[in-house]
Amino acid sequence: MTYPAKFIFLAAMNPCPCGYLGSDRHYCTCSEKQIKNYKTRISGPILDRMDILLTLNPVSLNKPKLSETSDTLRNRIEKAREYQYERYGKERCNGSASMEELTNSITTSQLEILQSISIKLGLSNRVQMKIIRLARTISDLAGEKNITDEALAEAMSLRKIKANTTFRKSSMIGESLQIQQKGLQ
Ligand SMILES: [Zn+2]
């Protein structure tokens, strides 16, 4: 291995010590204090460095197959990588693009909304950048030239930010984000 090395770090944890919090089949036997203690074992600075935070629900084997196949997904990813190549003029992904390169495709009002939410929730600059990177990638995968409001809302939901509570008194963009966010939950 040579350093610096590029790698993808994936980690998983149970929702609570017994593992059944949120399950509709099993009863969670943990107390609130136990759950809180369990969750604080992962420190804020560690979570801050994660790009995506997801809650996964159990999937039944009888569930219908996903509508998108691996082949169509691969095509979308290849196209997204082409857009990134065209945008940055070299082999570079959104994950390593500079702040300036990324903010070229986000509007001032989108930035303002992100900043006001970040102040309310105390999000670090690092997390704000991650949200913009994610929104840029989601927009690339959808074939959008600029970062869309929907992509921004989806990126926030991937950081477990509930936009429907924070956008309530926002502008029209905020309202559209709120609607999208509801659809994602
Ligand atoms: Zn439990």
Distance from first to last alpha carbon: 41 Å
User: So what's the overall shape?
Assistant: globular
The mean pLDDT is 85
- Main β-sheet, in a few words? none
Tell me which ligands are bound.
zinc ion
- Provide the helix percentage: 40-55%
Structural class: mainly alpha
- Uncertain ranges: 165-185
Count of helical regions: 9
Record field, number of beta strands: 0
Which strand-content bin applies to the residues?
under 5%
What order do the helices and strands follow? Answer: HHHHHHHHH
Q: Compute the gyration radius: what is it?
A: 18 Å
- In quaternary terms, these chains amount to single chain
Q: Key features?
A:
185 residues; mainly alpha; 9 helices; globular; binds zinc ion
Compact summary:
This protein is an all-alpha fold and 185 residues long. The chain is built from 9 helices and no strands. Helix 6 crosses helix 7 and helix 7 crosses helix 9.
Explain this structure to me?
- With 185 residues, this protein is mostly helical.
- It is 51% helix and 0% strand.
- The chain has nine helices and no strands.
- The protein has helices at 32-39, 44-48, 70-88, 99-103, 108-121, 125-141, 149-157, 163-166, 172-184.
- Helix 6 (125-141) crosses helix 7 (149-157) and helix 7 (149-157) crosses helix 9 (172-184).
- Residues 165-185 have low confidence and may be disordered.
- Bound molecules: zinc ion.
- Zinc ion (ZN) binds at residues 16-18, 20-21, 28-30.
